[in-house]
Specification:
- Helix 1 runs antiparallel to helix 2.
- The relative contact order is 0.15.
- By secondary structure, the chain is of the alpha+beta class.
- The N and C termini lie far apart (about 55 Å).
- A hairpin with a 5-residue loop joins strand 1 and strand 2.
- The chain has one domain.
Length: about 120
Amino acid sequence: MARWENEDVTGMGIPKPNITEIKLFNKEGRECTDDRRAFVKTATTTLPDKNTLTKYYIRFNRGELVDPHSVDFNHKTSLSEFKKVSEACFKLYKKYLVTKNRLYFTRSRRLYMEN
């Protein structure tokens, strides 16, 4: 065994690690555990000073938001990826997933293109 494996490091001022919780949501807007079936996700990081930082992500394919309720939606999501978006864009897209009202999808897509 190496010396540092048994050494006490509590007095060295090493900060506690950040804790990140990832939540995935499927095409109905419900929480899921499978990354391949998820269309939106949030990553909430709890910092050592008890502050939280939340990042929002939406699934994109070929530079466009994925529309899971579309008629020509293909279930192959191998080429798709999550991209970081604003909170307002995330909320509109998630509302679209729940209500299936195309107005929210259009507003979310426009909001993403403006930023």
